[in-house]
Amino acid sequence: MIRNFFGHLFTVLRHKHYVFKYGCKLGIPLRALIHDMSKFSPVEFFESVKYYQGGKSSPINAAKADKGHSLAWQHHKGRNTHHYEHWTDRYDDGTVAIKMPFKCVVEMIADYLGAAHAYHGRKFTLQMEYEWWKNKIETKPMIHVETRNFVTAVFSTFAKNGKIDRITNLKHLYEHGAFR
């Protein structure tokens, strides 16, 4: 259990390091600095310690596989607006996706990049991240179409250029429907 405790702590800190790195490149250093602080709350931290997988995959997925749900995930997505799952509503009559605010989408991109870099280390590439995203959206996650199209365009551009650029200059386009 001690190995899991420190292993999970190191994984969270490594993830936060990369999110901060990418958040700065994307133009959101403050949001990146305070990113995922809820991971240190007891409900998230200790379930993740219990289901820690050696830093190679998410303990949340392991908890879901074991119990069918994750209280850590329920807590996390409810408090962190950079998750598209936070932006859904109307569960009783056909769940709908809500367009995410721009600052949340940019943090989500930094989060995905940071997670991939933390999990894959030196093997991480922007092309790998773009391919992961394309596979993810093929399963039709409950994400607003404009948010999905924006993230796809950003990851495609990063993969094609082989580098990450600031995207805060795209705020006006995103907010005014250019990614419909």
Give a structural overview:
The protein has nine helices and two strands, in the order H-H-H-H-H-E-E-H-H-H-H. The chain has 180 residues and is mostly helical. It has helices spanning 2-26, 29-33, 42-50, 59-67, 71-79, 102-120, 126-138, 145-161, 171-175; strands at residues 88-89, 96-97. Strand 1 and strand 2 (96-97) form a beta hairpin. Helix 1 (2-26) packs across helix 6. Strands 1-2 form a two-stranded antiparallel ribbon.
Labels describing this entry:
62% helix; two-stranded antiparallel ribbon; 180 residues; 9 helices; mainly alpha
Low-confidence stretches: none
How would you classify the helix and strand content by structural class? mainly alpha
Alpha plus pi helix count: 9
**Main sheet: which strands, in order across?**
1-2
Portion of residues in beta strands equals under 5%
Shape: globular
- Mean pLDDT reading: 94
Between the first and last Cα atoms, what is the distance in angstroms? 48 Å
The total of beta strands comes to 2
List the helices and strands and how they pair.
Blueprint (H helix, E strand, L loop, with lengths): L1 H25 L2 H5 L8 H9 L8 H9 L3 H9 L8 E2 L6 E2 L4 H19 L5 H13 L6 H17 L9 H5 L5
Summarize the structure.
With 180 residues, the chain is mostly helical.
